[in-house]
Design a protein that fits this description.
Radius of gyration: 19 Å
Helix content: 10-25%
Shape: globular
Largest sheet: 6 strands, mixed
Number of strands: 6
Strand content: 35-45%
Number of domains: 1
């Protein structure tokens, strides 16, 4: 989900409570705070020697001691607006960072209204072999080009 779509969604439903549904069917605790809106830029070189860059918006959650805390969508919208100061645009995809037993990042796959909740369904991120994908798209070329050995 893009930041634009998320902002539009929370603005349309200001009295709801965002609820993050993890891929395993559990929820991020209801008293979690959104503590950061970040612009993450990842520059990389793949095993075939090709360079690239990915950008995303990262919402950091924090589960604090205040178990009475509840984030409403109107407040969530204001937090997203604050993020505009560090984000280049609102067309970037959004991921949610959550610390359970390890810190993990989950793309927001979809959203749905469930009573007083705006459920944000999180999906699993996946690794990929970009060189292998290039090989599949260019069947006559070597996996990682002619000068590099494929991983």
């Amino acid at each position: 989900m893009t930041l634009h779509a998320l902002k539009k969604l929370v603005s349309r439903h200001p009295a709801t409570f965002p609820r993050f549904l993890l891929p395993d069917g559990n929820y991020v605790p209801a008293h979690a705070h959104i503590t950061e809106v970040g612009h993450v830029v990842r520059k990389f070189i793949d095993c075939g020697g090709e360079t690239g860059q990915e950008e995303k918006v990262l919402l950091q959650t924090h589960v604090g001691r205040d178990t009475e805390h509840r984030l409403r969508s109107d407040r969530f919208a204001r937090i997203l607006e604050l993020g505009e100061r560090v984000l280049p645009d609102d067309q970037l995809d959004v991921e949610v960072e959550y610390d359970c037993c390890v810190v993990a990042q989950y793309p927001i796959a979809e959203a749905r209204l469930e009573g007083e909740y705006l459920e944000l369904l999180l999906s699993r991120g996946r690794t990929q072999c970009r060189a292998g994908e290039r090989r599949k798209s260019a069947a006559n070329e070597a996996c990682c080009g002619t000068t590099a050995a494929c991983c």
